[in-house]
C-alpha cells in the first residue's frame, strides 16, 4: 500500500460528524458497536440521518460494545468499530482497548471529547483519554481540525488492520463533530513512519529451509499471526510437505486443524504432554506468528533448550524479545509460508520423532474421571463439541472453563475461536459472542462462560432479546471463581479466600426476564436429553449447567517451572 | 552500558508522551532526554542517554521505539563519530572576593558567567557530559544554589571514519 495518496473531494455543507459517517462508509463499515452520550450527540445525529447505512448495535454497557467489536473482528477478520462518549463512556472502553492491544485485534475506537476550548479545564465528562490510552493502543489521535478528520479515519483503519493489527483510538472534540464544513476535504494519507515489513528476507527463508533439512526433531508453533494473515491454507501445505508436528498457542487454535494427526494440541501452562514435550525436546522450533508469551513458555530457562529457533513475526520487536532467534524472519505469515512452500520439498529424517510424538499423544491424552451423578466440566465441553460437530463459533470467558474449552473443543478452521488470551479479561466471553454471531449469522455460536465472568457483563442479554440473536450461553457453573480456587488449593494450602460463591442468581428466571429460554441442568442424564436440541434450535439460550466444583485443570505447569515439569499428566 | 540513541519523530501532539511512556512501561533506565525541532518542518529529534543491561535490551529499545507510528528513524549513534553536547546552568554562591577565583576555575572549561548578583554568579557551560560533570564538581565546594542541565543532544559527524577506528571516537562506554 502506498503511504501517500491525495484525493480532493467536493463536499456540500456538512458537519464533522457527517464527514465521519462518510469516511466510515468509504471504509466499508456496516456494523457499529456504540453507546451515545453528550459528546457524541452530533455523531449519533449523523448516524440517524444516514439511516440504513449501518447496523448500530447498542449494548447495555460500553465494555459490552467493545468486547462485541472484538468478537466481530476475530470472526470477520476485519476491523471492529466502536463509539463511546467522553469521560465515563471512554473509560468504560479501556479494558477492551487493552484486551485488543494484547491480542492484536484490529479495532477503531471513536471517543467523544469535550469541546476544544474547554479541554484541560476539567470540564463536565472530560477525561484525558489520549493519556489514558497511549500505552494500550497501537496509535491514537485527537482530531484538532475538521479538515483532517477524513485523513485520520483513513489512517486509523489502515494502522488498525495492517502490519500487526491492534486498536486505534480517535478522540473527537464535540465542536469538531458539530462544526459545519463546506470547503474541500483533503484526504492526505501520510504515514512515513509506518511501513510494516510484509515480505520475508529470502536469505532467512533459505536458512530456515536448510535448517529444516538438517532437523531430526522439528516442531511448528502456530500463533494467531497465522489467523490474522489468513495463512491457514499455506500452513497446511507446509505441514503436509514436511510432516512436521504442530503445537498451537491458545490464540493460534484453529490455524491448523486440531483433529489432524500432526496436531499435538495446545502447548503451555495447560497444554498437552505431547505438545509441551515436543517444545522441550525439539531441535528446530519454527514459531509462526506467536509471541512466546510466558503462559506458553513457562520458565524460559527450560524452554526449547536444545532447539534452533526460527521466528516468523510481522512485528520485529517480538523477535528476540523473550526467546533469542537464530533465524529471525520479519514477515507476514502468509508471505513467509508461501516463500517456504516455493522451496524444493525434501523428505526429512525424523521418523523416530514423529513416532515418539504420536506415542505420547496416545499414551498421555487429556483425562478426567467421568461421574454418573455429577457433570464433569471437561465432559460438558466434549458434549458441546460433539453436538455441534466441532463446527460452532466458540467464545469463552476467562478461567478454568476457558482452558477446558481450549483443550476439548478441537478447532479445524481459523476464525472460529474467540477468547481473551493476553489480558485474560473476565466478562469478555458473552459480549464477544454477540459480535461473533453478528459476523457469522449462519453458524451456531456458543459462549462457554464461567459463573463468575458471566456476571460481569450479563446485562447484554438485552441485546439477544432485542435482536433474537441465537447465541447459546453455556454457564460452566462450579459456583466458584474456579481458576482462583484451583490456585488456592495448589499453592495456598486450600485457603479459599473469596473464591467460593454460594450465592447464585436464578439464571433461568434471569434469562426468562429477558424472554430468553433458560435451562437448569445438573445431571449428565438431563444434559444428554436437552443439550442437543438447545444447540440445534434457532433460539438463544442460557444454560445454567451445574458442574463438579472440585475439578482442576490438568496438566499444569506451576509458576516458575519448565515445560517438562508438568503435573497431573496422568490420572 | 550507556548508549546514545536518537529518534527522529513526526511532531504530532502526544508523540513525546507516547515515547517516554513506552520507555517507562518497559522499564528502561533513562539518564536524559532532550527534544527539539530539526531542519525539517514538523520533524523533531529526541536524544536519549540510556543505561541498558545488554545488547538484547538495547535491541528491544530501538525496536519498540521504531514501532511507534510517529517515529521516523531510530539510531544508536554511540559507536559512531559524533558531536555531542550538553548545556548546564550553575548558580554558585559567591561574593565579590571569590568571583575571580571562580572565573579562574571555569576558564579552562570555556564556561562563562552569564549572571551576577550580590550573593551568586551563574555559570553557563557547554560540552560533553563528563566535562560538565567535572566543572560542577569543582564548583560544588563554593555552594551550588541551583543547577539545571539540558541533557545531551548529539548527531553524527560529517565525516565517519572507517569501521575499525570508530570505537576510539565513542563518547560513552
Ligand atoms: C476482570 C478480571 N478480574 C479478575 C480476574 C482473575 N481471575 C482469573 S480466572 C478467575 C475466576 C473466574 O471464575 P469463573 O468465571 O467462574 O470461571 P471458572 O474459573 O470457575 O471456570 C478470576 C477471578 C480476571 N481474569 N479478570
Ligand atoms: Mg466458576
Automatic annotation (TrEMBL), chain A:
<dbReference type="GO" id="GO:0030976">
    <property type="term" value="F:thiamine pyrophosphate binding"/>
</dbReference>
<dbReference type="InterPro" id="IPR012000">
    <property type="entry name" value="Thiamin_PyroP_enz_cen_dom"/>
</dbReference>
<dbReference type="InterPro" id="IPR029035">
    <property type="entry name" value="DHS-like_NAD/FAD-binding_dom"/>
</dbReference>
<feature type="domain" description="Thiamine pyrophosphate enzyme central">
    <location>
        <begin position="205"/>
        <end position="340"/>
    </location>
</feature>
<keyword id="KW-0285">Flavoprotein</keyword>
<keyword id="KW-0786">Thiamine pyrophosphate</keyword>
<dbReference type="InterPro" id="IPR012846">
    <property type="entry name" value="Acetolactate_synth_lsu"/>
</dbReference>
<protein>
    <recommendedName>
        <fullName>Acetolactate synthase</fullName>
        <ecNumber>2.2.1.6</ecNumber>
    </recommendedName>
</protein>
<dbReference type="InterPro" id="IPR045229">
    <property type="entry name" value="TPP_enz"/>
</dbReference>
<dbReference type="InterPro" id="IPR012001">
    <property type="entry name" value="Thiamin_PyroP_enz_TPP-bd_dom"/>
</dbReference>
<comment type="pathway">
    <text>Amino-acid biosynthesis; L-isoleucine biosynthesis; L-isoleucine from 2-oxobutanoate: step 1/4.</text>
</comment>
<dbReference type="GO" id="GO:0005948">
    <property type="term" value="C:acetolactate synthase complex"/>
</dbReference>
<dbReference type="GO" id="GO:0000287">
    <property type="term" value="F:magnesium ion binding"/>
</dbReference>
<dbReference type="GO" id="GO:0050660">
    <property type="term" value="F:flavin adenine dinucleotide binding"/>
</dbReference>
<dbReference type="GO" id="GO:0009097">
    <property type="term" value="P:isoleucine biosynthetic process"/>
</dbReference>
<keyword id="KW-0808">Transferase</keyword>
<dbReference type="InterPro" id="IPR029061">
    <property type="entry name" value="THDP-binding"/>
</dbReference>
<feature type="domain" description="Thiamine pyrophosphate enzyme N-terminal TPP-binding">
    <location>
        <begin position="15"/>
        <end position="131"/>
    </location>
</feature>
<comment type="pathway">
    <text>Amino-acid biosynthesis; L-valine biosynthesis; L-valine from pyruvate: step 1/4.</text>
</comment>
<dbReference type="InterPro" id="IPR039368">
    <property type="entry name" value="AHAS_TPP"/>
</dbReference>
<keyword id="KW-0100">Branched-chain amino acid biosynthesis</keyword>
<keyword id="KW-0479">Metal-binding</keyword>
Automatic annotation (TrEMBL), chain B:
<dbReference type="Pfam" id="PF22629">
    <property type="entry name" value="ACT_AHAS_ss"/>
</dbReference>
<dbReference type="GO" id="GO:1990610">
    <property type="term" value="F:acetolactate synthase regulator activity"/>
</dbReference>
<protein>
    <recommendedName>
        <fullName>Acetolactate synthase small subunit</fullName>
        <ecNumber>2.2.1.6</ecNumber>
    </recommendedName>
</protein>
<dbReference type="InterPro" id="IPR045865">
    <property type="entry name" value="ACT-like_dom_sf"/>
</dbReference>
<dbReference type="GO" id="GO:0003984">
    <property type="term" value="F:acetolactate synthase activity"/>
</dbReference>
<dbReference type="InterPro" id="IPR027271">
    <property type="entry name" value="Acetolactate_synth/TF_NikR_C"/>
</dbReference>
<comment type="pathway">
    <text>Amino-acid biosynthesis; L-isoleucine biosynthesis; L-isoleucine from 2-oxobutanoate: step 1/4.</text>
</comment>
<dbReference type="Pfam" id="PF10369">
    <property type="entry name" value="ALS_ss_C"/>
</dbReference>
<dbReference type="InterPro" id="IPR004789">
    <property type="entry name" value="Acetalactate_synth_ssu"/>
</dbReference>
<comment type="similarity">
    <text>Belongs to the acetolactate synthase small subunit family.</text>
</comment>
<dbReference type="GO" id="GO:0009099">
    <property type="term" value="P:L-valine biosynthetic process"/>
</dbReference>
<dbReference type="InterPro" id="IPR039557">
    <property type="entry name" value="AHAS_ACT"/>
</dbReference>
<keyword id="KW-0028">Amino-acid biosynthesis</keyword>
<dbReference type="InterPro" id="IPR002912">
    <property type="entry name" value="ACT_dom"/>
</dbReference>
<comment type="function">
    <text>Catalyzes the conversion of 2 pyruvate molecules into acetolactate in the first common step of the biosynthetic pathway of the branched-amino acids such as leucine, isoleucine, and valine.</text>
</comment>
<keyword id="KW-0808">Transferase</keyword>
<keyword id="KW-0100">Branched-chain amino acid biosynthesis</keyword>
<feature type="domain" description="ACT">
    <location>
        <begin position="4"/>
        <end position="79"/>
    </location>
</feature>
<dbReference type="InterPro" id="IPR019455">
    <property type="entry name" value="Acetolactate_synth_ssu_C"/>
</dbReference>
<comment type="subunit">
    <text>Dimer of large and small chains.</text>
</comment>
<dbReference type="GO" id="GO:0005829">
    <property type="term" value="C:cytosol"/>
</dbReference>
<comment type="pathway">
    <text>Amino-acid biosynthesis; L-valine biosynthesis; L-valine from pyruvate: step 1/4.</text>
</comment>
